[in-house]
Amino acid sequence: MKDNADPPLDNQVLRAIEVYNKYRSPEATAKLVKTEKDGFIIEFEGRFCQSCGVNEYFEDFIYDLEDINRNLRAEIKAVESTGPQSFRVHYAVMADFSGGDVEAEELFREFLQVRGLSFEDYLASNTCTKDVIKFHFQTWLLERKPKR
């Protein structure tokens, strides 16, 4: 495994963390520890609802990630307890980032550039602004599709 993954995986994991934390924090909070060529490591901390089962929190992250990129598949490789209310979860990625994922990332960056924004501007935006940008990006993608 390499220590540095392709930027598209990094960006997609970071976006999934934003979504995850938006809806689950402070009960559970995710933080990226490391990305690798074929996976990544997330540190989860929080008060975790015990009746739900702690593993469900880790599986929920996969759903958020797959919502961001429907071509991406991830699975839990290992879970280690790092404290009374924290876990380090190793995820394996089952997707090739040399195809459509890079294209989607490039399209998103092109969309931002056309509007005078950088990807860094997008990441620094508040959640509401990000939601609006994502909505306009989806509309922009639909307008770009050739009509049959």
List the SSEs and their pairings.
Blueprint: H1 7-24, E1 28-36, E2 39-46, H2 54-68, E3 74-83, E4 86-93, H3 100-114, H4 119-124, H5 127-144
Antiparallel strand pairs: 1-2, 2-4, 3-4
Helix pairs in contact: 1-2
- Lateral strand order in the biggest sheet: 1-2-4-3
CATH-level-2 architecture of the largest domain: 2-Layer Sandwich
DSSP strand content? 15-25%
> What is the radius of gyration computed over CA atoms, rounded to a whole number of angstroms?
16 Å
- What is the approximate shape? elongated
Which structural category fits the helices and strands?
Answer: alpha+beta
**Helical proportion, percent range:** 40-55%
Total count of strands: 4
Distance between the termini: 44 Å
Structure description:
The chain is α+β, with helices and mostly antiparallel strands. It folds into 2 domains: 7-93, Threonyl-tRNA Synthetase, Chain A, domain 2 (2-Layer Sandwich); 100-144, no CATH class. Helices cover 49% and strands 24% of the residues. It is built from 5 helices and 4 strands. The chain has helices at 7-24, 54-68, 100-114, 119-124, 127-144, and strands at residues 28-36, 39-46, 74-83, 86-93. A 4-stranded antiparallel β-sheet has the order 1-2-4-3, with helices on one face. The longest helix has 18 residues, at 7-24. It is elongated, with a radius of gyration of 16 Å. 20% of the residues are buried.
